[in-house]
From TrEMBL:
The keyword Oxidoreductase does not apply. Residues 1-23 are annotated as: Disordered. The gene is LRR1. The lineage of its organism: Eukaryota, Metazoa, Chordata, Craniata, Vertebrata. It comes from the Eukaryota. Substrate recognition subunit of an ECS (Elongin BC-CUL2/5-SOCS-box protein) E3 ubiquitin-protein ligase complex which mediates the ubiquitination and subsequent proteasomal degradation of target proteins. ECS(LRR1) ubiquitinates MCM7 and promotes CMG replisome disassembly by VCP and chromatin extraction during S-phase. May negatively regulate the 4-1BB-mediated signaling cascades which result in the activation of NK-kappaB and JNK1. This is Leucine-rich repeat protein 1. One of its GO terms (cellular component) is cytoplasm. The keyword Nucleus applies.
């Protein structure tokens, strides 16, 4: 009876370790033995008497871990492999004692690992390369462990209940990552690099609740696959300006933050469930607008409006990057025209049922309404809005 498994090279020098990837059969045929010629990087045979050994191949870069083998069979097997490595004629190799392993004897690669205490956290051993789901909670981690960022098959990463202050940009290199849980950490921001990473194509679930985040970057809305977003119990003073672009988003919660109002684009969302309970929402008063209008418009404002309205292509090769950034957050007047830094701003009341099927009450008074920002490109547009508003509230 013997067991064997294959794992990727590198990391622990310990001969025996957790198996990572298993093959279909343990039977090495002569043909395969030919492939061993000068292809072995190292043998780990310290525990051969206990029926364990590891053969590290050069190509493919894997470790073949053998365990629970009969010690003398294992020794003759290793001798044969050594000869094959040196290029000895395979016909002459003593392989007759080898019996193919049964499927049940081949260990399955480990895909899930749940760690819920500091004591169980692996400090010296690497994480199995085959992991798809890794949870490391209550481990007092102050930063994301770089060893986790090599796990290219990872789909679900749960680092909730730790002390993480900052996320490394390289989390964006986890190409398969669909779920990221960072509930109850010490995060103060969510970096732009992550919004621009491959997470744009994979990330569907993001839990940033119970952190210290004050604002999310404009680029956050490039995480276009997001379905589930939890932002509760942070210090958010605003939601991302282009929130409405998250077209896949169905579950949004941002309860107990410091939101005074919602971005104008919020009305483009189409949610199943929305929870904005416990925010210090302002009482909307359309009659007291904030006016940032220069008449006549500055040349910059006129050019910027024309660029957006006529969809003139621009980019960092044509314009200074701060202008590009400004253009990316151009506001839209109710007439459909763009405005950049000259506009009239006010807030109006929106019933949240307009964007979500199920709405958690925003306060203890039973309300489901929240203030949403409106922009106007000119006095004409604002006065038209005001006429309609006053008529409907007569
Ligand atoms: Zn207008």
């Amino acid at each position: 009876m013997s067991q064997w498994s294959i794992s990727r090279n590198g990391g622990s020098s310990d001969a025996m370790r957790t198996p990572r990837q298993a093959g279909e059969t343990a039977c090495l045929q002569n043909k395969q033995l030919r492939l061993l010629k000068e292809n072995i990087e190292q043998f780990f045979t310290k525990f051969v008497e206990e029926g364990k050994a590891t053969v590290r191949l050069k190509e493919p870069a894997v470790d073949v871990c053998l365990s629970k083998a009969n010690a003398s069979n294992l020794k003759s097997f290793l001798a044969a492999v050594r000869l094959a490595h040196r290029g000895t004629d395979v016909e002459a190799l003593p392989l007759s004692v080898l019996v193919p392993a049964k499927t049940s004897e081949v260990e399955k690669p480990k895909t899930k690992m749940i760690i819920t205490s500091r004591r169980d956290y692996p400090l010296t051993k690497n994480f199995p390369y085959s992991l798809e789901h890794l949870q490391a909670s209550y481990c007092k981690l102050a930063r994301v462990d770089m060893r986790m960022l090599c796990l290219k098959k990872l789909r679900k990463l749960d680092l909730s209940h730790n002390h993480i202050k900052k996320l490394p940009e390289t989390i964006g290199d986890l190409v398969s990552l669909q779920e990221l849980n960072l509930h109850n950490n010490h995060l103060e921001s969510f970096c732009v690099a992550l919004c621009n990473s491959t997470l744009q194509k994979s990330l569907q679930f993001l839990d940033l609740s119970q952190n210290k985040i004050k604002a999310l970057p404009v680029q956050f809305c490039q995480l276009q696959e997001l379905i589930h977003l939890k932002l509760d119990d942070n210090e958010l003073i605003r939601l991302p300006f282009k929130m409405g672009q998250l077209s896949q988003l169905r579950f949004l919660s941002a309860a107990r933050n410091k939101l005074p109002f919602l971005p104008s684009d919020f009305r483009n969302l189409s949610l199943e469930k929305l929870d904005l309970f416990g925010n210090p929402f302002e009482q909307p008063n359309p009659l007291v607008p904030s006016i940032q209008l220069k008449i006549p418009l500055t040349l910059l404002e006129s050019a910027a409006r024309a660029t957006v309205n006529y969809r003139i292509p621009y980019g960092r090769h044509l314009l200074p990057s701060h202008l590009c950034e400004d253009l990316e957050v151009a506001k839209t007047c109710q007439c459909g025209n763009a405005c950049l830094s000259c506009f009239i701003q006010t807030t109006v009341t929106m019933n949240l049922h307009y964007v979500a099927h199920t709405v958690v009450l925003v306060d203890n008074m039973g309300g489901t309404e929240a203030p949403i920002v409106c922009y106007f490109c000119s006095l004409t547009c604002y006065s038209q809005f005001l006429d309609r508003y006053l008529q409907s509230n007569r």
